[in-house]
Amino acid sequence: MASTPMDIDDASPAAATPSLNITRTLGANVSSTAVVSDVISLFRPTKLFRRDDIKEGKPQPHILSIDFDDPGELCMTSESDETIQLYSVKEGRHDKSLLSKKYGVRLAKFTHTSSSIIYASTKQNDAIRYLATHDNSFIRYFEGHEGAVTNLAMHPGSDNFISCSIDNTVRIWNIGTKQWTGKLYLNSPYLSAWDPSGNIFAVASPTSGSILLYDYRNYEKGPFSIFDVLKARGPADAEAAFRGWTKLEFSNDGKHILLGSRGAGHFLLDAFDGSLKAYLKKPGASTRRLAVGETEGGTVESSGECCFSPDGHFVLSGARSDLVIWDTLTTPSGDKVLDPVHVLEEKRETAVVAYNPRFNMIATADQELVFWLPDPHV
């Protein structure tokens, strides 16, 4: 496998694509996935997917979101041309295109069944749609939002999910019924995330500069804790505490919260008291995507250009170029600034980033999807 982006395998949907030979621990005779810290510096762009169904002269659509199913064997993108694209991770190939021309599509998420997904509408109304991917048929519509949905977060252990919207509500849903089961009224509740236990969820409100934590069993009583990002911003300017937020995520060990920003860095917060553990300083320019809820100053809205590695040890981030990696176990400088431990070369913009939950494999995108694998020959 070549180690430079210029030589990566170009795999348009119609092209013949060799297997990526990804393995995990499946039995005594099957090789296991390596420890993340052993391979994190070895990732290289391995396969590029370029849509070949786009008419000549037309630009490639923007990829709005990336998600993996629970087994890590399928990768899904939602795209600005109102399509959903499905890819086989193990085979390294494009599997299927699903059209949503009538309703539009963004923020596509797998349920805990790999053959069904939910996604937010962008046309006609602001409903969330529940789709069976095997025949592209709708199972249910989740209606109630009166403004664009800005975030969808699946419960880690069940098919309940949270939706956030510019209508200043957060809604909690059970996938078995079309009526929301809970509703919170908040100022700009644009991002949400579940802790790994599924007992706590967080909601991020950029205009109030706060992250609110709720007990899932008693959320009607209000947040049990409120983290003040302005207070915890460290060396970031005050403006970064009130705008430009792109991602909210708990680490899988439950110790940290990642608040992504399109500013000069991301915020790594203590999940228990909201204090700043580190300001993850970016070495170069951020992506050109809009932050959640923004309407001016970019191309299309971000759904998250940063994420934790599955073990919570590292944070990965896209940028105008390159893939940037921070070690969360490293002690930051006196002013809480933490510089990257690795900057992996990538000449394309990396505006959306996702780490496979089961394999050492990363997906990045802007207008083309790229699979990354560790190169043992580096």
From TrEMBL:
InterPro entries: Swd2/WDR82, WD40/YVTN_repeat-like_dom_sf, WD40_repeat_dom_sf, WD40_rpt. Keywords: Nucleus, Repeat, WD repeat. WD repeats lie at residues 142-175. One of its GO terms (biological process) is RNA metabolic process. It holds the Pfam family WD40. SMART domains: WD40 (SM00320). It is found in: Nucleus. GO terms for molecular function: chromatin binding. GO terms for cellular component: Set1C/COMPASS complex. SUPFAM superfamilies: WD40 repeat-like. Belongs to the WD repeat SWD2 family. This is WD40 repeat-like protein. It comes from Canariomyces notabilis.
